[in-house]
Amino acid sequence: MLNAIGAVDWGALPGPALRYEPDRVAVGLRALATATGPVQAADAGTLLAGGGLVHDHSGEVFPAAVTAAPLLLAIVRHGHPSAGATALGLL
Fold this sequence. Notes:
With 91 residues, the protein is mostly helical. The protein is built from five helices and two strands; from the N terminus they run H-H-H-E-E-H-H. The protein has a two-stranded antiparallel ribbon.
């Protein structure tokens, strides 16, 4: 899964310049995929919801969410239960 996350050029995906932060996507997905507890999962979710996949304050969903959806589903299936719950919340 980590290879799949790293294989995507998140910066090449479109998004509003003032809200989409592509660096948060790879870091957040890696952190969520390797989370071993609720605090780590929540921290990763904050990265992804705060400009990575969505902008939680405006409710805007970025195109990166489409690319990340299969990765989030894999985290639901294979990750720590807290990571899975965070991934479902993002989906």
